[in-house]
Amino acid sequence: MAANSSSPAFENFRLFGSAEDEKPNPGLSLGFLDSQQPPLPPPPPCLEVLSSEVCSSVKYNVEPVTVGEITMFKGRVSTQEVFSLSNSDLVPGKYEGGLKLWEGALDLVKALCGEVENGHLSFAGKRVLELGCGHGLPGIYACLEDAAAVHFQDFNAEVLRYLTIPNVTANLTKKAALPTNPTESDAGSAARYFAGDWSEMHKILPFASDDKEKLSENFNGYDIVLMAETVYSLSTLKTLYKLITQCLSRPHGVVYMAGKKHYFGVGGGTRRFLSVLEKEGEMVSKLIAEVADGSSNVREVWKISLK
Predict the structure, then answer these.
(1) Domains of the chain: which residue ranges?
(2) Of residues 144 and 24, which shows the higher confidence score?
């Protein structure tokens, strides 16, 4: 599906919306759109973060959040304490917003609940990957629905150590948690955590490959890929698409994507990502939810599958 070319005016519109209704950061730099600005720093190295590496030096506060008919827990940590950033939603190339709970994550959990209730989706026994996880609520929901393996990925290892891992623990406390840090013979039967840039992530994810011949056949990758608010930057859409093709199980893998229809100021959006899909011609998409509450840009949840 092609991107909508008739975007509304940019004036008086917030760049990013937040599920926590925080005020926008007037100092947020969009210098990465300016060719006169210096290039972004090199991305952090890709690595697996073990659950034992959870950091307790920063205060982690937890509070309930209701999504549809279920109650989950969301943690809150300070970007100032973790990254020495004051009230920053995003610093391109350094911090990609993982400590903030974005609206799309809640939209995605609600949509997944509906898909499960309607019999259109089952997580039981499935391999699940959440890209750009932050709090990890969609991946946590997959855990609660008896997924065999749930792998959480975020750009920043600090997000995983200070927020994602504690949040997974908080949400699974009353349920038998998935085993962690498996041996090689038990690879995948666990909640695991991976940090780094999407361009290199296929090298360390257990169920990913860049072997074109392997990917053209029945590929035993991730059955379900989840992502919320990952399509905000126009410059990363092709990289994200490529990673999905390197991860998605064939021929029946599915992607659930939540995000804003347009992210004004940075060029991304769900429709821009769908235009990438249309150009590549390998996948089909279906709109399963739309949220237009008047508090932010129109938000959407899409189901994407291979043709």
Answers:
(1) 49-306
(2) 144
